[in-house]
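ARCHIVE CARD
Drawer: 12
Card no.: 0347
Subject: one protein chain, sequence and derived structure
Cross-reference: see card 0346
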Amino acid sequence: MIAPRRFLPSIPSLLALEAVDRLGSASAAAEELSLTQSAISRQLKSMEEQLGVDLIQRSQMRLHLTPAAKEYVQVARTALNQLAQASLKLKANPTGGSLNLSILPAFGMHWLAPRLQDFARRHPEVTVNLNTRLRPFDFESERFDAAIHFGQRDWAGVNYLPIMREDVLPVCSPELLPDDADDIDWLTTAPLLHLETRPDAWERWFAAQGRMVSGIHGMLFDQFSTMGQATIHGLGVALLPSYLIEADLAAGRLVPAWHGPGVSLGNFYLVWPQSRAESEPLRSFRTWLQGQIDKAVVS
């Protein structure tokens, strides 16, 4: 049940309070909200009377929220943002629902995006909105319904749907490959390229080959796409997912830097918060994704 109306100030009052807190004056809040200063003052006074507490401290030409009001406006700001996002979702798809999905750039571009047309055909009532996040986040403060996660089951408070295991290969440009490439030692002195979100990838790869190597340095990249291009152009050796480099290997733009056993550094998962009821768009997407996973296993 929603709280009694006496505990629910009007949206104009909440907007006035939020703007005064952020901008520090009634005049600035009035300009942003296209109101007069007196209208802002009336909104604040009305809220104080409704809630029965003082919200504003006045000092010279600036307005400051009381400590209690500061805490209150943080919650109000989150609620206003959530309401605005809900309105945008409704406007974008008035006949159905929407799914806000956080993706990882390389996986989203090369694995998920080519398959989304099938989901759109099967579920025209659902609008999928994609945005990039490179690391786990707090679902309570972000507007996402679900996310693509890589690594282990180390994201607290979420449900997991395993999608696929990622195998990585050490690759380089043909020009960088030495004559003694059959000796793994050449990689310990080669220029090794690194991904920001996987700082220990090379150490783990060497360990899987039975070699303990530490203190590895080299160029750092934030995405596989730029690291892959740097590898093609001879800047170093990179650990790249096999699903990303099939075409480059086939075309000879990249070659294996070592022919040892394959190594997996983690898995891809669909994750969604345990604290929320599963929406119908998310349920449709999860069911469809499970079908894509099953299809990939069979093939």
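Annotation on reverse: The first helix runs from residue 11 to 23. Residues 5-92 form a domain with the Arc Repressor Mutant, subunit A fold (CATH 1.10.10.10).
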